[in-house]
Write a structure and sequence with these properties.
Length: 404
């Protein structure tokens, strides 16, 4: 009788080397097309934005916004998750990766793309007539037409239901009056999506630039989002034809659904700002010497780097999870609030901690850290303040409305 054979031990694959840039191996979650899109946007930002962004930020302007918008259109980055009308039809994850790479360059560049695609184009694509879509979307997707989105007012930010901008019927026309504030792209936009109160409820209107009574003075003296065009929208008896109204929505559901789409991009984008700041701190810690050795060799510095890496890559993982849910049609607005609240808050903390590692150099525009930190102060409160997102989650958790 022969002796029983000994089963061979299962082969164990050797894990890849530890990658400080991707410590959790999150790239394994991405498809080859995802990686190609991400790398294309990263290369574009490195070539076209990073060499100039400190100067633009210091000057408080984005002088080449029209050129950059056309180039972004050529990349397919404008309205990229929309389908048809010249839009790329990309996945939500691919759009998120694009936002991450753009905000790693500067929040102002990501804001340009978010407002164009997730607010202005999304509103037209979802709620517009076929004629409106054909008129505006191809040019906007190509970057030939810039759009803006007018919801926030000087006295009504977190509570848009109290808006004072109103539209009245006059025969077959509409006449708009009111003010909108803190509008990205406003003074360079070819079309503004303006939300106004009507006798029928809140409606969206497409206001072409150059309409009599419509102006968009630029807002200056900003200490955040300085490389971004921010404007007021002024509407004084702006007369529009009947077909200027978005026909497929009435009420706040319209603008709020657009904001939810844009907030999703912030969930990713904020991690780009955090990543750029973390990478600057990590490189600095490896090379800056004090007491005879690199400061990265001291325990307190390593503790900071480890904690930042944890929050950065947890945030990217959260963004990826929300993106997969969006692609599956399962993403809820409360989950977007979850991501926006967590990721922007953690991104600011990463920037602030990075600044401490760089010491005095951290406040210099030779490094990206302070620029990202000040930009994120705006990202923290636009498209829903911290408190609003906390209350959205509080209501979802308890079933009790604490807004009023």
């Amino acid at each position: 009788m022969s002796a029983p054979s000994t089963p061979s031990a299962p082969s164990v694959a050797k894990p890849p080397p530890f990658d400080p840039g991707d410590p959790l191996g999150l790239d394994d979650l991405l498809e080859p097309e995802d990686l190609a899109i991400r790398d294309t946007v990263r290369t574009w930002a490195a070539d076209r934005v990073l060499p100039h962004i400190a100067e633009w930020y210091e000057r408080g302007e984005l002088p080449v916004i029209r050129e950059l918008t056309r180039e972004l259109g050529g990349l397919g980055a404008l309205g990229m998750s929309l389908t048809g009308y010249g839009c790329a039809g990309a996945t939500a994850v691919q759009y998120g990766l694009t936002c991450l790479e753009l905000e790693a360059a500067d929040s102002g560049i990501r804001s340009l793309v978010s407002v164009q695609g997730s607010l202005a184009m999304y509103a037209i694509h979802r709620f517009g007539s076929e004629e409106q879509k054909r008129r505006w979307l191809p040019g906007m997707a190509a970057g030939e037409i810039i759009g803006c989105f007018g919801l926030t007012e000087p006295d009504h930010g977190s509570d848009p239901a109290g808006m004072r901008t109103h539209a009245k019927r006059d025969g077959t026309d509409w006449v708009l009056n009111g003010r909108k504030m803190w509008i990205t792209n406003g003074s360079v936009a070819g079309v503004a999506v303006v939300w106004a109160r009507t006798d029928e409820g809140i409606r969206g209107f497409l206001v072409p630039a150059g309409s009599p009574g419509f102006s968009a003075p630029e807002i200056t003296h900003k200490w955040s989002l300085r490389a971004s065009v921010t404007s007021e929208l002024v509407l004084d008896d702006v007369r529009l034809p009947a077909d200027a109204v978005l026909p497929e929505v009435t009420g706040l559901r319209g603008p709020l659904s657009c904001l939810s789409h844009a907030r999703y991009g912030i969930v990713w984008g904020s991690m780009g700002a955090a990543r750029a700041s973390f990478e600057a701190a990590l490189q600095y810690a490896r090379t800056r010497e004090q007491f005879g050795r690199p400061i990265g060799g001291f325990q307190l510095t390593q503790a900071k780097l480890a904690d930042m890496a944890l929050e950065l890559h947890k945030g990217i993982l959260l963004a990826h999870h929300l993106g997969r849910r969006m692609d599956a049609g399962r993403l809820r607005a409360e989950q977007v609030s979850f991501g926006k609240l967590n990721n922007v808050r953690e991104a600011i903390e990463i920037c602030r901690t990075s600044r401490t590692i760089l010491g005095a150099n951290g406040i210099s525009l030779e490094y990206p850290v302070m620029r990202h930190a000040t930009n994120l102060e705006s990202v923290l409160t636009y498209e829903g303040t911290v408190e609003m997102h906390q209350l959205v989650l509080g209501k979802a958790l308890t079933g009790l409305d604490a807004f009023r």
